[in-house]
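re: ur question from the group chat, yeah i did fold both. here u go
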Amino acid sequence: MGHLAHRLLVDGHAPRLLFWPGTAEGAVDWLRGLHGQWRARLGDLTDAEPDSTDRTVTLPWGEGMSLTDAAGWVNVELTKNVAEIGLPRILHGARNAPR
């Protein structure tokens, strides 16, 4: 199928392109790449930046939130999303298991 892309209207702003790597293996590679970028960006922060609110002021939910708080929130959300994706897989495996 190749790459699947959709255009979505996000919060009343112009549509943006969403990327799908096409296969489960491609998705894993893509997510690993994003993980590396995330760690690199966090590692490049100065000592003062984690406590700053400068980078979060434009987020719709980030007013007054420090960068550390926002990064923690993102990590929790991603963990929750992975659990939500994995649950149907576990349920499907349990349904098809011999009794």
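okk and heres the other one u asked abt
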Amino acid sequence: MDAMKGRQREVIMMKINKPSNSGFINPYQKTQNKTQVSKAAQAKRKDQVQISDQAKAMLGNKVNTDPVHQQKVKELKQQVQNGEYQVDSRKVAEKMYQFWFGED
């Protein structure tokens, strides 16, 4: 205690203020803002599909204009609509077998 009698106490004061709104950003808020911007950017983006001229030509050629084929399709549609179409399960099985195993 005797050593303290000869010394003067030095008092250091520090002023602490609230952070100003302009320079302080909450890290959580910053992350949340990025997420909101990202969602907004995704909402503006639209899906796009580009079909080549060659693909368009192939699609146009797909329509079969053979009158015999068109008549057969028309008859099959009519049978299906009337509930008269019968599936030949043996033919279906044979075609599936040929497709998968390449045999007749």
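fwiw on the second one: The chain has a mean pLDDT of 78. DSSP finds five helices and no strands in the chain. idk if thats what u expected
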